[in-house]
Amino acid sequence: MAASGERAEISVRKRRVGIKRTETDSAVSGGEDGKHSSSDAEKEKPLLSLQPGTYWLTRIVLLRSVAFIYFVAFSVAYNQNKQLIGEHGLMPCKSYLRSVKRYVGGKIGMAAMAYTPSVLWFFDWSDMDANLDGIALLGMALSGFVLVMGMANMVIMLTLWVLYHSLVNVGQLWYSFGWESQLLETGFLAIFLCPVWTLSQVPHRCPPSLICIWTFRWLIVRIMLGAGLIKIRGDKCWRDLTCMDYHYETQPVPNPMSYYIHRSPWWFHRFETLSNHFVELIVPFFTFLGRRLCMVNGAIQILFQVVLIVSGNLSFLNWLTIVPSLACFDDASLGFLFRSGAGAKKAVLEIQSEDVAGRTPAPTKGMLIRQVVNISLGILIGCLSIPVVTNLLSSRQVMNTSFDPLRIVNTYGAFGSITKERTEVIFQGTLSPDPKDPEALWEEYQFMCKPGDVYRRPCLLSPYHYRLDWLMWFAAFQTYEQSEWVIHIAGRLLSNDSTVLSLLDHNPFQGRDSPRWVRGEHFRYKFSQPGSASAAQGKWWLRKRIGAYFPPVNLEGLRGYFQSRNWPHPHLQQNRK
């Protein structure tokens, strides 16, 4: 009986313990379930702030920035191409294309396209001015759309790239600046930021490729290292820190701030030069040291370019260099540029919330193909970068050079040497029948922006670009035999040619007879001293004559010169027009 009673008591105790364990297990289970449900609830909550590591907004900023540069570049082309490479331009692109056609065997085929990639091969050449205007206007329309809307697809960006490529490759001397290749490389990378067809600021099924973002970062690294290394290896003044004593006065097209910054104390110019070396040779490596230092690099590079924009007219070069710097920032750091609670920022927050909740959509076949394309882009840029990196490491570094015909990956650099004195070529004309007559009145032509009249304030132009003004800066420290196009301009001025005169700011013979003689005078220019008597008289510049750049010429005397170069004689051309 006692045994059976103990067994019964033990059985009761076990049941009680079982009940307690069940309650405990239920409590534990309920707690865990509560935690899971709490966690799930947190995941379901929409994010209130953008998280780092995504580049949806970065893509919008990059596309708008590239579109802005394209818009400026095509605007320059629309306003100046006819005068420079049009039917009656200084270097007609029709003549250039014909010479290429003869060189490759007289046929327009793959050889011609490989030598000079341009859609102009397929156009009717009977009205080349209309062709050039059509390309420029289409480029302005497409880039304006992307700039305003903040969205693009591969078709639009590829079209912009092909159109600008077509102009650069027939632009000859007038499109020989380093920023042309830089825009083409930047524009090529921008193609791969976009979906193929979709037009949306935030296309859910086409996330920005991290590979593409890194190609932009690699571009800014190469630009800055190229610029820094060419300086260190080039002019001695970069090593003894005196280059900035001259730069503001002797740069191609100074602006009003250049006038004042040039007179800064010597120690400030030394500080500028040291800062330049730090920004171009040290800071680019921050790109590879994590998110925060990468953003530091981007911020410093943008600030550096803004300083250059303020202190000179370097076309759209500095504006363009800002573009790849923007790739150093992700959505979290660029969110302040977008309106909260609406539009692209709201869409990105929703995408990030879905990612946190684990509701990322399964990749489609198209997304997988796109990943292959992105990987292929990375491999392409890597392979094409080999000669570029080799050039950077070489003691014989060259700058602003392309190693492939499509200019996909290029070398860059600027101001490897600094001119210590500013010289200018001034065109002068006279109605006198005898150019040697001491009583002859020589009247000066004025260009749009380059120094001429000492009383004219330096212009504020950037990001716009007067191509002829820039090339006149190069011509001034060469001879007219090295820059024969200068004599071509002189011949056009002798006939009061409206095409060339539209590139100038002032024609002293406007509404009068054409000049009988034109000459080129060589002057040395210096900024006047602020507060000096000259400045009080309104003079921004002081100048001293060096001598004749080219002797007085007239139309009859230039006939043989023009014929030997297959240039149409200005007088005959004027009659045709």
UniProtKB/TrEMBL annotation:
| Intracellular or extracellular location(s) | Endoplasmic reticulum membrane
Phosphoprotein found in the keyword field: no
Q: Which domain of life is it from?
A: Eukaryota
What membrane topology does this protein have? Multi-pass membrane protein
Tell me which UniProt keywords the record has, alphabetically.
Endoplasmic reticulum, Membrane, Transmembrane, Transmembrane helix
Name of one Pfam family that matches: LMF1_C
Function of this protein? Involved in the maturation of specific proteins in the endoplasmic reticulum.
Q: Mainly resides where?
A: endoplasmic reticulum
A single cellular component GO annotation? endoplasmic reticulum membrane
Q: Name one GO biological process term.
A: protein maturation
Which protein are we looking at? Lipase maturation factor
The residue ranges crossing the membrane are 56-78, 104-123, 135-163, 183-202, 208-230, 372-393
Can you tell me which family this protein belongs to? Answer: Belongs to the lipase maturation factor family.
Cite the Lipase maturation factor 1/2 N-terminal domain residue spans from the record: 175-334
Q: Which InterPro entries match?
A: LMF (IPR009613), LMF1/2_C (IPR057433), LMF1/2_N (IPR057434)
Q: Which residues form the Lipase maturation factor 1/2 C-terminal domain?
A: 408-551
Query: Which residue intervals are annotated with compositional bias (Basic and acidic residues) in the record?
Result: 1-12, 32-44
Provide the residue span(s) of the region labelled Disordered.
1-44
